[in-house]
Design goal:
236 residues
């Protein structure tokens, strides 16, 4: 369930009225089936904790998962325990159960305008949906991305990161199957706080391509699309 509300404050001055509209507050209670399909939810949650609730903690901050290790792969290409490049994450401008998100891995960076957050106390799950259109003009995919853990002064304890293939048009059968997913964890069990994000990294483009590809070949619908495919992403 997702609820939005805006607060409007009106102050009466002697000869005028000033109206101040505060930022929209989004309250998210659960992670819906269009993020984790019902057919795989039980299995998925055996590999990654999902925290639901209307009072998530403040997760705004910058973090790094180092080393980032594959803990589950439904596709079976990379072996469990495979180590990937450090993943830098930034949760930005949090208001209630939503925020913006930036990510960097190797020299690949990405940015999402809208991420939803559920949880209670210090436990949370953040998630968003992304769409990727490949340069061939007909291959595309839609995936969900999730980050779960327990916030602390040192960072995100027991941090896990996952993505799930939700739908695709894949005539050449190059991509991971629908409902396929991968789960990663931080080798230290703590995504530590580390400043890395600068607003200037968001412009002029929201995704920079490189030979050292990042976490996934997909972007939030409000991001730019890229052609490159991540080593950890959606190909088989």
């Amino acid at each position: 369930m997702l609820v939005t509300c805006s607060l409007i404050l009106t102050s009466c001055l002697e000869d005028s009225k000033d109206t101040v509209i505060l930022p929209e507050i989004i309250v998210v209670e659960d992670v819906p089936d269009d993020i984790i399909p019902a057919s795989i939810r039980s299995e998925f949650e055996s590999h990654m904790s999902i925290y639901e609730g209307k009072l998530p903690p403040i997760i705004q901050g910058e973090y790094v998962m180092s080393e980032m290790v594959l803990s589950y792969n439904s596709v079976g290409d990379f072996e469990i325990g495979h180590v990937f490049s450090d993943c830098y994450m930034a949760f930005l401008n949090q208001v209630g159960g939503s925020c913006q998100y930036a990510e960097k891995q190797a020299s690949s960076t990405s940015y999402a305008e809208k991420v939803y957050i559920t949880g209670n106390n210090n436990d949370f799950t953040a998630y968003f949906v992304a769409h990727h259109q490949r340069s061939d003009g007909y291959t595309w995919s839609t995936m969900s991305t999730l980050v779960s853990g327990t916030i602390s002064s040192a960072g995100i304890k027991n941090c896990k990161y996952a993505f799930i293939m939700l739908e695709k048009n894949d005539p050449d059968d190059k991509l991971m199957p629908v409902n396929g997913y991968r789960v990663f964890y931080d080798n230290t069990n703590l995504a530590s706080r580390q400043a890395w994000y600068e607003e200037s990294q968001k412009a002029p483009t929201r995704m920079q391509q490189s030979e050292n590809k990042g976490i996934q070949d997909m972007l939030e619908k409000n991001m730019l699309n890229v052609e490159n495919v991540s080593e950890r992403s959606i190909e088989k």
